[in-house]
Amino acid sequence: MTATSITPRDGALLVNWLRLLGWRIEIEYAAHEWTGRATHVDPIGKEFVVGAFAQSERDLVSQLFCRALSVQSTLKAAA
Predict the structure, then answer these.
(1) Global pTM?
(2) Domain spans of the chain?
């Protein structure tokens, strides 16, 4: 038997990880589409923004997470 854990909201865990990494997350649903924006300000005040849109909240959060981690990787590589 396989145990399955269902969270109350798809993507909530990824959103929380992004927040722990210092990202501000904005998610909206309008006209049958999810849109989102993740913003991060580095220690010297430079702002980084990633955005995405999708038909499901889960896909939107996944896209934002991947794009934000891509920015984080670039920042670490440049340091």
Answers:
(1) 0.83
(2) 28-55
